């Protein structure tokens, strides 16, 4: 079953069998015409009203389904956090070594072309680490909420 309403009269609900399709919208238009003919439509529609102007009414999810979706999403958020944490750990030591080399740019000591070339190659590693670390920190704050959702879902009912 699919339900439609009108922007001009949201209280009017037209229900037709099937899914949202051209045919279903045409059937809803037939119902709308019947309402208009019976003068039961609380608003006047402008000439040229078409089936495409019908608004599909989506059903609200039940609380049980919403709870399941919240748990599934929480697990996905925690899985993403685990993946990002591994990536951060894998690249941290190399990034810190390169970061230490950056300081040579701020000294008056002469540097070789080889040192500069090595440093330039390391900028990509620094950039990647910084981006992954930033995503990890953002994911960690989201994961706090996910952990709370999961903890709530795992509570055993007390009697």
Task: Give me a quick take on this structure.
By secondary structure, this protein is mainly alpha-helical. The chain has helices at 22-37, 63-102, 113-154; strands spanning 2-5, 14-16, 55-57.
Helix and strand topology:
Layout: E1 2-5, E2 14-16, H1 22-37, E3 55-57, H2 63-102, H3 113-154
Antiparallel strand pairs: 1-2, 1-3
Structural account:
This protein is mainly alpha-helical. It has 2 domains: 2-57, no CATH class; 63-154. It has helices spanning 22-37, 63-102, 113-154, and strands at residues 2-5, 14-16, 55-57. Strands 2-1-3 form a 3-stranded antiparallel sheet, with helices on one face.
Keywords:
159 residues, mainly alpha, 2 domains, three-stranded antiparallel β-sheet, 3 helices, 62% helix, elongated
């Amino acid at each position: 079953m699919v339900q439609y309403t009108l922007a001009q009269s949201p209280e009017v609900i037209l229900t037709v069998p099937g899914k949202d399709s051209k045919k279903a919208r045409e059937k809803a238009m037939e119902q709308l015409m019947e309402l208009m003919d019976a003068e039961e439509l609380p608003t006047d529609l402008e000439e040229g009203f078409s089936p495409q102007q019908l608004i599909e009414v989506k059903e609200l999810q039940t609380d049980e389904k919403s709870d399941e979706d919240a748990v599934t999403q929480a697990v996905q958020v925690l899985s993403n956090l685990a993946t990002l944490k591994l990536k951060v750990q894998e690249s941290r030591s190399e990034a810190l070594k390169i970061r230490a080399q950056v300081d040579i740019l701020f000294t008056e000591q002469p540097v070789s072309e080889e040192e500069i070339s090595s440093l330039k190659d390391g900028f990509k590693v620094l950039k990647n680490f910084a981006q992954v670390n930033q995503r990890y920190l953002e994911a960690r704050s989201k994961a706090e909420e996910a952990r709370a959702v999961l903890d709530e879902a795992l509570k055993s009912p007390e009697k």
